[in-house]
Design goal:
The protein has helices at residues 20-28, 57-64, 72-88, 109-121, 136-147, 162-175, 192-200, 233-237, 267-280, 298-312, 323-326, 333-347, and strands at 6-13, 98-103, 152-156, 181-188, 224-231, 245-254, 289-291, 318-320, 379-385, 390-397. The protein is of the alpha/beta class. The longest helix is centred in the first third of the chain and has 17 residues, at 72-88.
């Protein structure tokens, strides 16, 4: 068994960049990816700003190597997962026990929507090839085949905590000596179903979102993919470059409060963070930075903030929501934020919370508003809290000097 799980590689594509370097450059320079809808065909094109990946389907097909008939969700996944695999630089990858644990919430729905639009107009129309990859699991299988991973493949779909749970599952597979290497994270493309669903919940912002601001109005949706390559101690010793950090703690908790709302007292959020700390053997004061779930909705930020106050008072870590850059990428969000958190643990990065102006009166803390590097960080907490009370927290820890 491997007592320690290492993060050996990272890969990401989002509204702020097509790879890790581009995303980090945007984070450094406070350049958000939120803008007017360009690629998604919707009646809300001029109503709701979103953080789309700045590539058309044809451009994504060229970059990923998939054909343009494959869903946008799968193309985003392959681009980020392949970067995470290559970044790890594992020379004997094919000879190891490898796994791909990928999360998403929409599957190939972007293609399915096109099919039904044609089919409903004329039952003799509609391309059936656009629905064969509809299922969430099919997206994972398509990408796993391209990565050459056949030992263990699984799909996680637990709303906004999906990628965090995929990463937790991958770590458990390594710790229990079932696999040597796991590429874990998630992907999601913007679809009309997603946009319309969140609009029905009345939590979308018609302006750029302001997470953890007293005057926040709601969230901006986004799309993208983020993966980390997890390896065992044995594999880590043979790497040509040092791992980024360790995944030292994680926890999934559920307060079963409501189908979509977080509990006002932050019970699920508190249990997830507290459980991750206990697993890692850390105390609250050991955490130097929190990558907040921070969606920008009234309910979520109040709930998460209440839990943070309960757990960390009187000594609060630095914190911010990178969703102010990427939008809320749903099933991909925890994977994207895991990449940012791993870089934070390794290099001492603290990211700005864009557009923050006014502190929430009940919160005795405020998010950071500027980029910091070389901060004295040893442990970074990343929060992802989903619908149905599905709350997950991950802790990334700096390697000893």
């Amino acid at each position: 068994m491997s007592k320690t799980v290492f993060v050996a590689g990272v890969g990401v594509i989002s509204g702020i960049g097509n790879n890790t370097a581009e995303c980090l450059n945007a984070l450094r320079n406070s350049r958000a990816g939120i803008d007017k809808i360009k690629y998604l065909q919707t009646v809300h094109q001029d109503t709701f700003p979103v953080a789309e990946v700045k590539l058309s389907n044809d451009e994504l097909a060229q970059l990923s190597g998939f054909g343009p008939g494959i869903s946008r969700t799968a193309m985003l996944s392959l681009i980020a997962a392949r970067e995470a695999k290559n970044d790890a630089g594992i020379q004997n990858f094919a000879s190891l026990r490898t796994g791909f644990i990928s999360a998403n919430t929409v599957g190939g729905m972007d293609k399915t929507e096109g099919f039904f639009e044609q089919f409903m107009a004329n039952p003799a129309k509609g391309k059936l090839r656009n629905v064969v990859n509809h299922e969430c699991g099919k997206v994972t299988e398509l990408v796993a085949d391209e990565l050459g991973i056949k030992n263990y493949i699984s799909t996680i779909s637990t709303a906004c905590s999906s990628s965090a749970n995929a990463i937790m599952y991958g770590a458990r597979l390594i710790k229990n000596n079932i696999l040597d290497v796991v590429i874990a994270g998630g992907t999601d493309a913007l679809t009309r179903f997603t946009l319309n669903g969140f609009n029905t919940l009345m939590i979308l912002d018609t302006q750029y979102c302001q997470p953890f601001d007293a005057n926040r109005r709601g969230l901006n949706l986004g799309e993208g993919a983020g993966y980390i390559t997890l390896v065992s101690e044995r594999v880590a010793t043979g790497l040509q470059k040092a791992p980024y950090c360790t995944l030292s703690g994680y926890c999934n908790a559920n307060d079963a409060y409501h189908q979509t709302a977080s509990s006002p007292d932050g019970t699920g959020s508190f249990m997830a963070m507290d459980g991750a700390l206990k697993m890692s053997g850390l105390k609250p004061e050991d955490i130097g930075y929190i990558n907040l779930h921070g969606t920008g909705t009234q309910n979520n930020d109040n709930s998460e903030g209440t839990a943070i106050k309960r757990l960390f008072e009187p000594h609060f870590p630095k914190m911010s929501s990178t969703k102010s850059f990427t939008g809320h990428t749903l099933g991909a969000s925890a994977g994207i934020e895991a990449v940012f958190s791993a870089l934070s643990a390794q290099q001492g990065f603290i990211y700005p919370n864009l557009r923050f102006e006014t502190q929430i009166p009940d919160h005795p803390f405020a998010p950071e508003t500027s980029f910091t590097q070389h901060a004295d960080l040893n442990h970074v907490l990343s929060n992802s809290f989903g619908f149905g009370g599905n709350c997950s927290s991950l802790i990334f820890s700096k390697l000893p000097a």
